[in-house]
Amino acid sequence: MSAAPAAPPPASAEPPGPAVRTGTGTGTGAGAATATAVRPDLGLLLVPPRARTGWRLVPARVLAMCTVELQKLRHDRTELYTRAVQPALWLLIFGETFTRLKAIPTGGIPYLDYLAPGIIAQSAMFIAIFYGIMIIWERDSGVLTKLLVTPTPRAALVTGKAFAAGVKAVIQAVVVVVIAALLGVAMTWNPLRLLGVVVAVLLGSAFFSCLSMTIAGIVLTRDRLMGIGQAITMPLFFGSNALYPVDLMPGWLQAVSRANPLSYQVDALRGLLIGTRANLPLDFAVLTGATVLGITAASALLARLAR
Amino acid sequence: MTSAENGVGEAVVCRGLEYTFHHGRGKGASTRAVDGVDLTVHTGEVFGLLGPNGAGKTTAIRAITTLLPVRAGMVRVFGHDPARQRMEVRRLLGYVPQQLSADSGLTGRENVALFARVFDVPHAERRERVSQALAAVDLTDAADRMAGTYSGGMVRRLELAQALVSAPRLLVMDEPTIGLDPIARTGVWECVDAVRRATGMTVLVTTHYMDEADWYCDRLALMDHGRIRALGTPEELKAQVREQDPQQTAPSLDDVFRHFAGRDLARNESSEGEFSDVRRTRRTASRVR
Ligand SMILES: Nc1ncnc2c1ncn2[C@@H]1O[C@H](COP(=O)(O)OP(=O)(O)OP(=O)(O)O)[C@@H](O)[C@H]1O
Ligand SMILES: [Mg+2]
Asked: Given the CA of residue B55, which atom of ligand 1 is nearest to it?
């Protein structure tokens, strides 16, 4: 206990008396008048905002979290650019080479075109799978703690974070789409289909970020989450239809691919962007179901992070 | 008295509050951080929770702010149970945690706006309310700078603005001035004081700094090893020390703390628990309350 030198306010006021005023919202008394004479107007800070209730609560929180994510991206775009390097290299090196090799049966379309939706999904997944690191950082820095003391149910907080990760992924996907277009990939420009692409990227990222937050809630530390994240991205990526058709795989890997939400995301993206045959209702149903499951699991484990 | 027992009409009531952390399996793998805390924070007062590192201040505060489940004992915040009525309690709270917790990737204004959003401030008044909260803590000029470029004192005031934007009835601050220089500390306290005078909100604060507690708190609780050792106004606590130890003619709060906690600590180390002293402390504590 260091006895730091006293720093009483100069001539500010008499020492605080007991219970200046009881109750709230009575800011027009004489005491308030002296305070506001030297202080700026605090009028609005006297009235608590009216609580939002019912179904409007969750969308409002999701919007708040997405806004924060966009504000952060606006302040610092370097992440957006550095994260574009890897998908660009995949398309440029792997894509161009295998287009020439013609080793992978793609049903007549150039391999680069076949690959592009897979790389969009992959780059979004790579971002989302490490989203839990940000949650752990926010926990350590107190940002999360403070949000947990606001009228935000755990599930609303997780949903908000998941869709914030999704918004980030959509912006990332736009960058990859532009790169692919520059490399000559023939994609649709039908706005309705593009809207479908946005939804598929959003849902896929929401699921993978929830998976990441769930793991964060289990392992609790950044290093362990990093290790697990790296260990599962490879099998998730190669055990999907992102690089090659599922029919080429051995039977057991086909089963893995069928249980892998990334496959359904790629299937939807490929169908929407390139026009290959896709089971869109199934794809979106699986993605939505996986997201709901992910949100449930991550919300249940968020309390462990708060403790 | 019965209404006070239920916590109606009081800002915070804790009765027999306990919390134990379990780390791993086996004996000795648990810490009883809060060990039977009884305290009442009256509406409108500034209540200081004082204690050395590890006394359990943060743990007690986390139970009051709905961050930890209340497994043993009772807590009420304006009559609401933080364990069951989480949303109701949270709407009444402004919380400044022990760490500096502003988001460095956002501007000061964006940091405050986030809290306006999650407290459901309608769009129409959000901008104005955020500006008023920033003005209340003297950050108007720095509002559009990144919070990462703020000094420690500015971050603390920004966090205060985040807590104040929802017009809380209870402001809970966990060591708001730790690591700040005397001028920055004064700055934080003056902001709290000005807003409190205008709004009549209740303040629950923990601190290590005795001089601050003496100057700004209406009542204090001295906490050590998870228990409240003494409770009362700074003057009452000093008077008790004068009474119990005539050599102390003009005790400072530091002396008070040494009297109630310091000696206790020393005695615990020699494992010679003087039961009568503990009982005396308990008695005075309950009398003051
Ligand atoms: N998450 C945790 N897991 C396990 N033990 C914990 C945890 N948090 C606190 N403790 C233990 O509980 C006790 C009380 O800690 P607490 O943080 O409440 O003290 P404090 O009074 O706030 O101290 P300080 O002045 O250092 O902030 C300490 O012994 C601490 O080691
Ligand atoms: Mg603490």
From this structure: 21
